[in-house]
Amino acid sequence: MGVGATQIDHIVISSNDSAATAKLFSENYGIEIKRVMSRPGTGAHLEFAKLDEVVLEFAGPGEVKSYDEVKARIGGVVLTVTDIDAAVAHLRGLGYDVSDARPAVQPGAKISAVKAGTHGVPFALIQYNALPVEAPNA
Amino acid sequence: MKAKRIDHVGIVVKDLDAATATYARHFDLAVDSARGGEVAALGIKNAFMPIGESDLEFIQPLTAEGPVAQFAAERGEGTFMLSIEVDDLEKAVEELRSHGARVGNPANGIAFVSMKSTHGVNLQLIERKTS
Lengths: 138, 131
Known about the structure:
The complex is a heterodimer of chains A (138) and B (131).
Chain A: E1 5-15, H1 18-29, E2 33-38, E3 45-51, E4 54-60, E5 72-81, H2 84-93, E6 102-103, E7 110-114, E8 123-127
Parallel strand pairs in A: 1-4, 5-8
Antiparallel strand pairs in A: 1-5, 2-3, 3-4, 6-7, 7-8
Chain B: E1 5-12, H1 16-27, E2 37-39, E3 44-51, E4 54-61, H2 67-75, E5 78-85, H3 89-98, E6 110-113, E7 123-126
Parallel strand pairs in B: 1-4, 5-7
Antiparallel strand pairs in B: 1-5, 2-3, 3-4, 6-7
C-alpha cells in the first residue's frame, strides 16, 4: 500500500498577522471565514475558510507584534489519507523523516508532518475519524 | 468577487522529471499527460498531478528571467503560487481593481494578482471554461 492520499485537505497561509490576512482574503476574494481559534499549547491564531473541498488555514502568532507590513506566504499543504499509520509506515520505509501521527486541532483527526524530501513543500498528512470524538456535555 | 475553488497549488522545482517521479513513486500521484509542457512565453515547463478536485502543478524554470526563476534563485524549491477558480474572470478582475487591488490583465483564462494586494501570497485567478 502507498500513502493513499485522496485530496488536498488544507493549505496553510502563514502570516505575521493571520487575522489581517484572513480579513483581506475574506473581503477581497469572497472567502468566508468559518472558524477562528487559538492552537492549544502554542496559542497560535488560526482562522479557517473552506473553498469547495479544500480548507484554507490562516496561521500566525497569537500575539501580533508591531510590524511595517503584513507578510504572508503559502506555508504548506496537507493531504487527506485513509490510514495515517499505514501512510507514515510507508514513507518511513522509503526513508522519509515523518513525525508520529498526533491528534490534530480538527476533532477526531490525526496529523503527521513529512519533514523533508518533498521538493521544498512542507507536507503533512491528515486522517479524519482516526480518534474518538468526545460528545459535548448534555 | 467570489472565490469558487482551489484550482491548483504551484510548486517550483529544479528538475521537473525528478519531482514528478518522486510524487508518483512515493505519494501515488500521476501526471496528467493531457496538460503541461513547455511554456516558452513564461520561460518554464510544467506538469499537473491531480489530487481530488485540485492539482499540484510542478514548475521548472527554463530561463534565468521571470518570477519562477526569481523564486528559484531566492528560495530554491517550494510552494510558489495559489490558483483560485472564479466563475467570471473579467468581472473578478474588475471588482478587485475597484477595491484598489493590483491585478494583471486577464489572458488565456488567467490573471495574476500583485503580491502587494495579497500580503505577499502569489495568487492566480483562473476561469475554467465548461464545455
